[in-house]
Amino acid sequence: MKNKEVFLTTKNINNKNIVLLSDIHYSNTFNIKIFDKIINQIKKLSVDYIFIIGDLIDNTNINYDVLYSFLSDLEKYGKVFIGLGNHDIYKYNNIKRSLFNLGKNIWIRSNHSKLLNIVDKLDNTYLLDNDSYVDKESNICITGISMSFEYYANDENTDIFKKEINNVNIKLNSKYYNILLIHSPYNVYKVPDILKDYDLVLSGHMHGGLVHPLFSKLFKKNKGLISSRKELFPNYVRGRTKTDYFDGYIYEGITKLSESSTKFLHFFDRLFPKNIGYIEINKIDT
Fold first, then answer.
1. Taking the complete model, does pTM exceed 0.90, yes or no?
2. What CATH number is given to the structural domain containing 132?
3. Range of the domain at 143
4. Could you give the number of structural domains in the chain?
5. What is the per-residue pLDDT across 67-90, written as a single tens digit (0 to 9) for each?
């Protein structure tokens, strides 16, 4: 696990320690020992919230009992909030995919009702699908925005992004510290003003730009080797960020090379460490 990142605010909140997870990509080929590694890291920490920022699952034909057991363990250590990513709701059309068209994301709709059913059975876990959770005792509001099938199918088009963000019917209270969970950061930093009402924006999706920690010093802080959109040397794929409107953090994800999106290379995912993210929000006096 990396060092904790601390975000400061003048708003009247209770300080919070937060674990970040994303891009677990649980599937039939997933090594469930990774769940144990995640839990063992969290056990050693003081935790208030656990955020899963999309792509918890990677296939609808999975063992949901195992997933339920993992989430049950997670919520013992803090409130769990799940935002939806593209792989939670949609999946690749494997019939049309091959090693020769990895750059083309051919999506079909997928039913995620079983994931919803699991969350309903849990006591301390919340799914935020274009919805908010307000922690009134701490003056913190957590929102999850889910981008549509059309957005991902159209290569994360910026105009679609702006339209869908504007259409999300969520009223934010400026007295709260407003946190946004949005899976993909791709357009977040292209048009940051559209999210100006948030204090902290948390994302995943970019898999850290596939930069192994051994070679991280060769790259600038937020740059990567390749993005989830198959772009070389992309910006905004990992780490702490800041705009004129909000603070941000892009978590590198648990799985870097998932079975469905890069099946040929999935074997090499074991070369990457499985480190959780850890941040703190602190109130400062003015």
1. yes
2. 3.60.21.10
3. 5-283
4. 1
5. 999 999 999 999 999 999 988 887
